[in-house]
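Input chain follows. Return structure tokens only.
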Amino acid sequence: MTRDFIVLERIWPPASAPAGWLCHLGGWPNLPASVPWPRVTFPDGTSAALDFLAQIDLAAVPEVYERGLLPRHGMLYFFAVGETSEPLAALGAGAWKVIYRPDSAAGVPPRPPPGDAGWGQQQIDYARGDAPVLRDPEAPRDALYPYCPVQPRRAVASENGEGDAPPRRSGFAYKPHELPLRVEDALLHLNAARNSWFENIVPFPVYLDHLRARAKGSRDDVPRLRPGQKPPPPRPPAPWVTYVLSADGLCDFAADYTLWRGRAAAMAAELRALGGSTPLTAAQRTRVFALVEQTSALHLRVTGQRLHMPIAAGLAQASLTTLLLHDPGLAARCPDEVAAAKPAADHPHRMLGPNRAVQQGTMGGAETFLLLQLESDSWGPRFMWWDAGNLTFWLSVRDAASRNFDAVRAEIEGH
């Protein structure tokens, strides 16, 4: 048995999207200013703007079996709390929102998100997605997901729900000794190093207090003993625990960190002035690595662990998706690299048809259908749903018929 569905195929290279193209992931929505930006109110009474994730021009959606469930024209806009380590349902029904507008968004300018979007980046105890790790620390907090134009395309799925994946067209491979390859790659390296300290997200004294509390928990951890069992001899605390609990040690560390942060910011400004697609010299590459190594050593001093950096080849591909938008000529200058970096369709973003279940699936309820499923996508909009999971929006057939998109349900499914 086979079923057809809609693949949201990334337009590649992205600058080849037609002028005024309205189907895209990330970036800013072409949402009229008269439409309120969706917000979530949390159980504690605080609130935040939702993150914009995708918009679909329904006139561009081709025919598939379930196409009749959606309007033929108009726009769908998808929002959610994008950076959360909790299930969306735990944050309340306002943690996601789908807006349907029956009119076209042609001529509507892109609308920047409110300044309080990007909620969840400050969760120190949880792993963060690719977007906050790679963001420019000096940019607004809401500048998370890069713009990625997509083309809705009909695909055929087998029983396992996977579509037809086009083969790679090039054998190009990044050479480790040439990475980071360009200025934009180097900036992503520096961004990741600086964001490891939650720069401009969490005040540095707050982060130090968190480290101190963690060190106390490690020091005071007492093993459970059976009745009559003698306690083991006390073990000396790990060096990082002693260091963090020492006021003098943290004072010295803060001075070293401040010096490092200034050097990293200065080098980022220096590189940025050269232009993102400028190839790096060996000397520049060495300086980038030296700065990353310095912050890794700082991490070791106060956390007991070295800095974990993204894979360099992945950063090069992530930077390429952005560079090709701002420097379309790059595609002609490096055609093999661009062909090799064309996004695979192994687990595509999709609409209608079968959903892809990571574990048990999230869709529930009578007569529901898949409205949109966004996969983890490190190179494009830099989505990362928990541990390489996905975010699913679904709706009942009855609510679709009445155009009740307020009834959409959404959830993240991951490992």
